[in-house]
Design goal:
Layout lengths: L6 E4 L1 H13 L6 E5 L1 H5 L3 H10 L4 E4 L2 H9 L5 E4 L8 H6 L3 E4 L2 H13 L4 E6 L11 H11 L5 E7 L11 H19 L6 E5 L1 H6 L7 E2 L24 E6 L2 E5 L4 E2 L5 E2 L4 E6 L16 E4 L2 E5 L8 E4 L11 E8 L2 E3 L1 H7 L4 H7 L5 E4 L1
Parallel strand pairs: 1-20, 2-3, 2-9, 3-4, 4-5, 5-6, 6-7, 7-8, 8-9
Antiparallel strand pairs: 1-10, 10-18, 11-14, 12-13, 14-17, 15-16, 15-18, 16-17, 18-19
Helix pairs in contact: 1-3, 7-8, 10-11
Bound molecules: pyridoxal-5'-phosphate (PLP).
Length: 371
């Protein structure tokens, strides 16, 4: 079946470029664990993994075991670290697919070890330490007892130790400094007792860009690989390129007389004669409904505002000021057209979202095309 004219265009060359920028920000012997969870932030995990491995990336990070399993089944052979950990019903699948879990609780480690032993396998793990995110990791006082216990689990070995920042993207680094100190103290204690995990890592994209003291010997960038910024304050600071464009086309144009209504709820009433264009994209595709009456898209190099509520499958635009507009005209939702650009950060900000969220919301029914 031929597709409707709504699609996300992903530029492989820009992902390569962005990976290069990550490499430029770190010493040559520092490893990159490329974060491709949530279908590579909507960019397509398998495609992105393929691009990155062609530029020498040897480690990938996903959130859940099933994401890792899917990549394995698609033929990705590089190391895959499951950042969110492994749940008790997934241990066999994890071992079968040769995934590397992050661990932070003893019951899981014990069960994993027992199963690995039974399957005659050895599993590398990364231990997660909570330095102030209050989420998954071991609290500081739990770390040494945890390592003591792991010593006795012969089919597990600790390949990495990691932590995660709460607000390192902010200007004020007081809390990040505290987290970093906490992590370094923990590493010292662990090293002092003879445990020397090969990888030490704490760096998301913001840390790669703005906080080199926390790079250790591996970094875990996600969003910057896709050419978006973790925080608008980094604008102009790093030369990364937006890898994804979201596009559609005008499918219908109508001239409405004064007083006419557009979309559900009659929130848009034409104050004068108004030209309305309809595009086949709506909140069912991940275009935020909160952009009703507020978002902008590009047509013929100009901005057109969303008229009325965004529908599930369709959105209407006030195109009264766009000269020569015609059915079939390209509409850029995220991306560049002529001199104008709408970044994922811009669109997200209008919606009170972050670019991460906007990317993840681009739904399955939007076709991804790769160039
Ligand atoms: C998602 C994630 C990252 C990547 O963060 P970005 O801000 O996208 O660079 C790194 N580490 C962990 C543990 C994550 O969950």
């Amino acid at each position: 079946m031929e597709k409707r004219p709504t699609f996300a265009l992903v530029n492989r060359e820009y992902i390569r470029h962005n990976f290069g920028k990550v490499k430029e920000s770190i010493p040559p012997d520092t490893e990159v664990l490329a974060v491709i969870k949530a279908n590579a932030y909507g960019h397509g995990a398998f495609e992105v993994a393929n691009v990155l491995r062609s530029c020498g990336c040897r480690m990938f990070g996903v959130a859940f075991c099933e994401e890792g399993a899917e990549l394995r089944s698609a033929g990705i052979r590089e190391d895959i670290v499951v950042l969110g950990g492994v749940y008790s019903n997934q241990l066999k699948g994890l071992i079968d697919h040769d995934l590397t879990p992050v661990v932070y609780d003893l019951d899981t480690a014990v069960s994993l070890n027992a199963l690995a032993k039974k399957m005659d396998r050895h599993v590398g793990v990364h231990v997660k330490v909570d330095t102030g995110m209050g989420r998954l990791g071991l609290l500081r006082h739990e770390v040494v007892p945890f390592f003591e216990k792991l010593k006795h689990l012969g089919n597990i070995s600790v390949e990495g130790i990691m932590s995660h920042f709460s607000d390192v993207d902010e200007e004020d680094k007081a809390y990040a400094d505290k987290q970093l100190k906490d992590f370094m103290d923990t590493i010292d204690i662990i090293n002092g007792r003879g445990w020397k995990p090969r990888f030490v890592h704490m760096s998301n994209s913001a840390t790669v860009i703005d906080y080199p003291q926390a790079h250790f010997n591996m970094v875990r960038p996600g969003i910057m690989l896709y050419g978006a910024l973790p925080n608008p304050r980094f604008y102009g600071r790093v030369d990364i390129r937006p890898a994804l464009e979201l596009k559609t086309r005008v499918v219908r144009i109508k001239r409405l007389c004064e007083g006419s209504v557009v979309s559900y709820g009659r929130s848009f009433v034409a104050g004068k004669e108004t030209l309305i264009a309809t595009v086949p994209l709506g909140y069912g595709d991940g275009y935020p409904r909160s952009l009703s009456g507020k978002g902008e898209m590009l047509i013929r190099g100009k901005r057109a505002r969303v008229a009325g509520y965004v529908c599930m499958d369709l959105t209407m635009l006030d195109v009264s000021s766009i000269e020569g507009i015609a059915v079939g005209d390209e509409v850029v939702v995220i991306g560049r057209q002529g001199e104008e650009e709408l970044t994922a950060g811009d669109v997200a900000a209008w919606a009170g979202m972050i670019p991460y969220e906007l990317f993840c919301n681009i739904s399955q029914r939007v076709e991804r095309l790769y160039i």
